[in-house]
Amino acid sequence: MEFSTSYRPDLRRYSIAAITVILAIPAAQLLRPWIGQSVPPIVLAPWILIGAWYGGLGVGLLSTALNSIAAAYFLLPPFHSFWIAEADDRLHLAVFAMVGVLISWLCESRRRTAIRLESAVLDAQRLRTEARDHVRRIAETEGNLKCALSALLENIQKPAVELETFVQALAGYSCLACGAARIEPIDARRLFIRAIDEFGETLPQDAHVACDVPAVTIDGDAAQLHQLLRHLIGNAIKFRSGEQLRIRISAEERSDRFIFSVADNGIGMIPAHWDQAFALGRRLHADQYPGAGMGLAISRRIVENHGGLIWLVSELGQGTTVRFTIPRKAV
Q: Which end of the chain is more exposed for a tag (fewer CB within 10 A), N or C?
């Protein structure tokens, strides 16, 4: 396969040299009634220009060589012989060869300049895209910090233990926002099972947890994804209703990504609160449940670090389903 992919483009380029000879000699033969029996090789120069313009230096030199041989054989007496009888004809052929080399060199210079210009344009576009991405991240981080500062000010009057929890969660979020994910192949099913097992003593005795995640390999940061699962499963346990706790973890495989779901039958929330649940320090049930209100915000940051999306669907009293995507290949 390596031979075919690298050889065929070169074969197409260098075939131009043969095409120039096939077209140049008949065209020169048609000029005999006006020029005479001895056709000067210089009339073949435009065909070399065509070959060098589209094929580069190598094709131009090959076209010059082939056209020189063809000119000696077909255009200069004695015809159908590589011997050139007249000294003027030999001089003309030498000048023709020099012109062909010059044309090839000029065309190659043009081609390389065009390649460098195209590369510079692509680099400029890439840098502009990266700059926009950095500006977006800075703006997003600034907005998050403002929101976090507002939440921090609101929490100043809270007990010291609760405030310390919030500060620690905020520090963890900042590390996730500034640090890059360390991508490695991960067994998704084993990752989910390990996260579930860590809640063994926390889960109610009658709880039912189903994990329908297949043994597939994903690219991601194992530590960050483990933290994500701890937040999602922990929320399902924390916000359970009076019924038997049921948690179902599943995965859908698409062509370019995996969609994971963590569904519970907990207290749920109204649709108007879906987006608010992902805000930094946002606690929808502050008086009833402990916590810093950072779990879903951290979860969203982890998913975005992997190039995915996260959202939830919930109804009050009907449980909550959190879904997030992980690309099949790291971005």
A: N
Position 321 scores a pLDDT of 93
* 294 and 163 within one domain: yes
Q: What pLDDT does residue 323 have?
A: 93
Please report the pLDDT score of residue 4 as a whole number: 40
Q: How many CB atoms lie within 10 A of CB 58?
A: 15
Domain boundary among 77, 101, 122: 122
Cα gap 217→186, rounded to integer Å: 5
User: pLDDT of 141-152, one tens digit each?
Assistant: 777 777 777 776
Q: What pLDDT, on a 0 to 100 scale, did the predictor assign at position 325?
A: 92
Is residue 266 domain-shared with residue 217, that is, in the same domain? yes
Q: Are residues 248 and 297 in the same domain?
A: yes
Neighbours of 249 (CB within 10 A): 23
Sign, Cα dihedral of 6, 11, 17, 20: negative
Which domain covers residue 66, as residue numbers?
A: 2-122
Q: What CA–CA distance (Å, rounded) separates 150 from 157? A: 13
